[in-house]
Amino acid sequence: MGEFDLIAHYFTRPVRPGGAAVLGVGDDCALLAPSPGMQLAISSDMLVEGRHFFADVDPEALGHKALAVNLSDLAACGARPLAFTLALSLPRVHEPWLAGFARGMWQLADAHGCELVGGDTTQGPLNICITVFGEVPSGEALLRSGARPGDDLYVSGTLGDARLALEALLGHTPLPADVLARARQRLERPTPRVALGLQLRGIASSAMDLSDGLVGDVSHILTASRVGVAINVDLATNLIASSAHPSIGSSQFDTELSRRCVLSGGDDYELAFTAPTAQRSAVAAAAAASGTAVTRIGTVLAEPGLRLVDGQGRPVENRYASFDHFR
Ligand code: ADP
Ligand code: MG
Asked: Which ligand does the CA of 27 lie closest to?
């Protein structure tokens, strides 16, 4: 199978009539027609073998994740997904792998009405780069820069299970098989919180998605908004789903491991966002409308810096740096 057969077979579908894509795969450019009054929201994420995933990962999960991490960026901006491009570097054409990858990718794309409109395909080390295009009413995108002192800090869903799975797969932390299976789902098949992001427009004062770890990622909101925050570590640490699993003994699962996974974990693809205290019931309604749990874990402060406190308000030493490719 050659390059063009591969594209035609796995990555070409007619564009949806009435959708934002006017022209899809096959020409030199795709054409998108965003609705009047909307701004385009654009983001790219690259996944590199050995860096972001294991060589033997299930290709279907990889197809899901490659798109999911991009949709998560749209979610963080409160943008509705429209379309995406796929730049793929493959060592060789292995049809079962391509079929699995395409299946995982199409399933998630269809669930969000997001169309594949183009890309590039070359031979080389396995590397997947997706660019997503979404739309948001002009001026309504959720940004990192809008947090104000006194706002509440929230996170969606659960945190830390992806990191726990990674530690177990690397042989650092033994886990019962059923616990690992569940945590591994979080690592390999993250859920982009698109519906929540849309609901939070006009309610959240700032937002971002959590890809590199709570502490480091929230620091980006602090920098962009020129504020500080106090995070209740005990509330945050409760958000690791694996610790509530009946097969986990407390001896296997100490507080330090939970804190490390939740605070510096990464790969969660949940949303962190701030909102004025006057919006508490609106945040609860947004969570309910999107079917996504949200938990209030902190308070934005005027004084810069990220402080960790325990449930009694006592300071907790911050040893929870985020992942950085070049450190
Ligand atoms: P060009 O030479 O103009 O860069 P290509 O020959 O690389 O175009 O690709 C032909 C068409 O197939 C283009 O419309 C391109 O967007 C599309 N395409 C290439 N690779 C992919 C892919 N992995 N997924 C979707 N579309 C692709
Ligand atoms: Mg090309």
From this structure: 1
Whether residue 159 contacts residue 124, with contact meaning beta carbons closer than 8 Å, is answered with no
How far is residue 154's CA from residue 152's CA, in Å, rounded to a whole number?
Answer: 6
At the top level of CATH, which class does the domain 152-314 belong to?
Answer: alpha beta
Per-residue pLDDT at 321: 80
Phi, psi of 273 (to 5 degrees): -150, 160
- Residue identified by tokens 């379309």 is 83
pLDDT of residue 249: 56
Residue with the smallest CA separation from ligand 1 atom 13 is: 26
pLDDT digit string (tens) for 143-166? Answer: 999 999 999 999 999 999 999 999
> Which of 1, 3, 6, 7 to mutate to test ligand 1, by most ligand atoms within 8 A of the CB atom?
7
DSSP 130-198: EEEEEEEETT----GGG--TT-EEEEES--SHHHHHHHHHTTSS---HHHHHHHHHHHHS----HHHHH
pLDDT given for residue 137 in this prediction: 98
Residue ranges per structural domain of the chain = 3-137, 152-314
Provide CATH code, domain 3-137: 3.30.1330.10
